[in-house]
Amino acid sequence: MTETLLDVPGARLCAETFGDPADPAILLIGGIASAMDWWHEDFCQALAAGDSPSGPGRFVIRYDHRDTGRSRTDPPGAPSYTGDDLAEDPVRLLDTLGLGRAHVVGVSMGGGIAQQTAIEHPDRVATLTLMSTSPLTGGPDLPAPTAEARALFDDPPPDPDWSDLDAVVRHLVEGERAFAGPGYDAAATLETARRVAERSIDPAAASNHFLVEGRTPEGALADVAVPTLVLHGEADPMFPPEHGAALAAAVPGARLVLLSGVGHQYPPRIAWGVVVPEILALTAPGAAPRTGPGGAGAPTTTASP
């Protein structure tokens, strides 16, 4: 794996790559206020290894959003960029890396960015995988977050002492635990949270993401013409499973896979046995589009703790 700083318009972004650049590229887009470490290194390595020892691997790219990790960081409360910048950064990264197209994978806010990329830059997206997210261009009325999840936004916990590394780690861990499903892995979350806190130029700056606004894409999900996979936790308290079903129904031919034991979170290790093969099958060279047994949007395999 290789970590590097890349200059894109208006920012310097930290990215890390796994695998052979000659293999099909998978670009991982993280959630709001998230550094790239939440895409677990072992998960990235599993994707890079590919389908089999003799089969093709994948060139996997993860990156720190602006104001996270080692990417350009503004003072907390004073972001110098817009939501459009966050949404355009995936294409800017592909340009900087000299990649024409990539298989785009996004989680939560990253799933919204992935949708916008597929709608507005269809020539840059080979396939689309959307995790723990909701339709970006409207649709049916969908369930609100659970009362517990809503309370965390209405009455958020106080900020930690950002100069105290252990306090920052505890703050990150609690934020992840609040949205995770029953398959929550406390040890893995603690390990990742510590790495995020140690790597971040200023962990307090990540909250700037909540101060910038995006926009509705110029187009519709019905216009997305690439093979699409929707992965959604059955225990997601932020976007209940109906959001995943609506998203799969909105994209022609999309495949929906519900993950038991999973909440609103990056794919936990318990789900990798389903998530990794699903992404590899979608991104395999020459792969035929896969849909559920009941057609587009039909639930298929589930992962259990």
Brief characterization of the structure:
The model has no long low-confidence stretch (mean pLDDT 92). The chain is built from 8 helices and 8 strands, in the order βββαβαβαβαααβαβα.
What's the CATH C level?
Answer: Alpha Beta
Shape annotation: globular
Estimated radius of gyration: 18 Å
> Which stretches are poorly predicted, pLDDT < 50 over at least 5 residues?
none
CATH fold assignment: Rossmann fold
Strand content: 15-25%
Please outline the major beta sheet: 8 strands, mixed
The total count of strands amounts to: 8
Structural class: alpha/beta
Strand order, sheet with most strands: 1-2-4-3-5-6-7-8
The helix content, as a percent range, equals 25-40%
List the helices and strands and how they pair.
Blueprint: E1 2-8, E2 11-18, E3 25-29, H1 41-49, E4 59-63, H2 83-97, E5 102-107, H3 109-120, E6 125-131, H4 147-154, H5 165-179, H6 186-199, E7 228-233, H7 241-250, E8 255-259, H8 272-283
Parallel strand pairs: 3-4, 3-5, 5-6, 6-7, 7-8
Antiparallel strand pairs: 1-2, 2-4
Helix pairs in contact: 2-3, 5-6
General description of the model:
There is one protein chain. This protein has 305 residues and is α/β, with parallel strands linked by helices. The protein contains eight helices and eight strands. The chain has a single domain, classed as Rossmann fold (3-Layer(aba) Sandwich). The protein has helices at 41-49, 83-97, 109-120, 147-154, 165-179, 186-199, 241-250, 272-283; strands at 2-8, 11-18, 25-29, 59-63, 102-107, 125-131, 228-233, 255-259. It is globular, with a radius of gyration of 18 Å. Residues 64-73 have a biased composition (Basic and acidic residues). This is Alpha/beta fold hydrolase.
